[in-house]
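ok here's the first one, seq then struct tokens
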Amino acid sequence: MGKAKEMEANTENINPNVKDADYLLWQRYKTTQDQMIKEELIIKYAPFVKYIAGRIAMNLPSNVEYDDLVGYGIFGLIDAIEKFQPNRQVKFKTYAQTRIRGSIFDELRVLDWAPRSVRQKARQLEKAFIELENRIGRPATDEEISEEMGIGLTELYKLYNETRGSVLMSLDEVCYEDESNTTRINFIEDEKTPTPHAKVEEDEMRGILAGAIGNLSERERLVVTLYYYEELTLKEIGEVLGVSDSRVSQLHTKAVLRLRGKLSKYQKDSSG
């Protein structure tokens, strides 16, 4: 089990059906609005905020400070604590996660952390990956990508760092400012009731993605595994691989650009 999973496991979920100490603590706070109890809850769930901030930081430019993300997330945690209803059939961490992430993303949007120019560079990188790798039939090296784009390795590495934030999209982002504040996640079909056509497409997409991951370089594949399956943070992956945080970010960005290119090609081919 990774360190991040241990951190998450140590932050206990609130089970409204169990009249334990945590449940009683919530009831006391909701009844009295005691600020000392509120502070106790904030301290209890601060590690969960740090966990979420660490996951988000993996995809952001180096000029975005991790401590700032934690600070933004704490505002979301406080909001969740104030609005949480312990008698409802939902765990607090499940309830709070959306608000913590949403609070972080709200602040990032204000900072304009991924301007249009950065997204344009990301599309250029993605195009270079897919066109070159379609020609050579294997994952392209950094040297080959830099030659394909007509730039030096130093500039390519700079592009990786600049565009890593472009691979992040918040499903919590509000699409329509209505009474229900509709978010992107509202447009995702409920997986509990898949249609036969959707099931076929899902299986086919899963196979393509698995094949694309298998074609990544060994280090890129390891970064994807540690990040998405072991749920390690950027710093923890760097410790495993014995490389810097910046190098892990480059590997992750390259892997995502390759995978996104493969999937976009499949979507174009299937729609055509």
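and now the second one, same deal
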Amino acid sequence: MALFDRLPTLLLMTAVALAATFHADFSAITLTGTKLSDLGAKLVSLTLVALAIERAVEIYLSNRFDPDADCPRPDKRRAAMMASLALSLAVSVVGVRLLAQMADTPPLDLIQRRSFDMVDIILTSLLLSGGADGLHQIVTKASRTRRA
């Protein structure tokens, strides 16, 4: 059973987050009034990065696994997930981030700034490692919401 599948772990993480917020003097972060067209452009840029990561993972897998060998599918899938997450994390660490593009002013407090960057890196990494299809679904749902 995975560590995050356990309720006590989630409760502990929530308690730590609440304690950190309570003891730190975090101010609210103002998000820009992002128009749907601007959000779409930002997500399309991330989609292009996700496509590049997907292609790099395909090349990695073709070099790692012999196409003639009978490789178990879970092994190949696990390797693809780890490679995708590693590349996505590297891209996010060097500065390709989603939340930073939407924040009007970055947090001024050092602890809040570092926390914001960490959450932004994790969120962007997970979005990028999910692939271009996942980002495309977000753009599609956002455009449907606007029409409704």
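notes on #2: Residues 36-147 form one domain. Helices lie at 7-23, 36-64, 73-93, 99-102, 110-129, 132-147.
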